[in-house]
Amino acid sequence: MSKSTNNDTVAIVIAAYNASNTIEKAVRSALIQKSVSQVIVVDDASQDNTYEAALLAEDNSGRLLVLKLPKNSGPSAARNLALKNTTAQWFTVLDADDYLMEGRIDKLLSLAGNDYDILADDLWLLEEGDNPENISPMLNIEPTDKVSDLSLETFIAGNLPQKGKSRRELGFLKPIIRKTSLDEAHLQYDEKMRLGEDYDLYVRLLANGAKAGLTSPQGYVAIRRANSLSGCHGHSELMHFYNSIRTHRDLPNLSKEARHLNKLARTNASRKYRWAKMIHAIKHGNIGDFLSCLTTSPDNIVFLFSNLALTLHYRLFKHKKKLDTQKFS
């Protein structure tokens, strides 16, 4: 892939929805990054004063641009709008409720050099309301200045659940991405997706030949919140995520291992989507939607009914325990 001759400008893209309590801190943390030429906030038709709160972070450097969508369109549409307004050689995403430590972007640029189109660092994780000193790395990568190559196969595998192992969730990474790698592949965020849009874009970039690297935490602090949007998705969002993974099997130049891993990812996404749709159908008495969940492989059908049996058993046991408690209280 072609390299930009000027590697020192980065745009930080922040898609924000009802983030008035956190957006100012996020923007300020972006503006203190020395190599950042633009900080582009896109307010996704928030119902609070996110737009005004973002403007409060203005440092008079002329680098902050705050835009607002007329209707709520999702993070992908917000990010695409930001990318249309960037002139930087690199871009990276910052969630509106997270923040950056000073110097993160400079460190990543230095490590990327001319060797990588995508460079991701391990995330620092912090529970909402916890002491900042209690941050911990998501991937447990030891602090180092070394970069490990991140292949398409490794990336897909890093998002798959493995029995007895903690899930790495590489799709949550927030790398710096060389803008030319996106433009040359004619890629953007899939605006149908409100879940897993980062994963989808990374897979497509890697399949197109972008070279990616992974290093230890350089200063992205991700706040884990009980009510985060990424943890509150329904079967519709899961359906679009599943459909995106289905299309990945048609990407060119996939290795045999990548095809196998994509099949596992597809199965995992299919089960999540169909299970969420089945529960929704049961709650709303929709027999047609319930039956449509069963148009899948025998293994997936066994998975769905096993989950259903376990759920019913748990609820009956819980109900019986409650009745017994009331009986003897």
TrEMBL record:
<dbReference type="Pfam" id="PF00535">
    <property type="entry name" value="Glycos_transf_2"/>
</dbReference>
<protein>
    <submittedName>
        <fullName>Glycosyltransferase family 2 protein</fullName>
    </submittedName>
</protein>
<dbReference type="InterPro" id="IPR029044">
    <property type="entry name" value="Nucleotide-diphossugar_trans"/>
</dbReference>
<dbReference type="InterPro" id="IPR001173">
    <property type="entry name" value="Glyco_trans_2-like"/>
</dbReference>
<feature type="domain" description="Glycosyltransferase 2-like">
    <location>
        <begin position="12"/>
        <end position="120"/>
    </location>
</feature>
<dbReference type="InterPro" id="IPR050834">
    <property type="entry name" value="Glycosyltransf_2"/>
</dbReference>
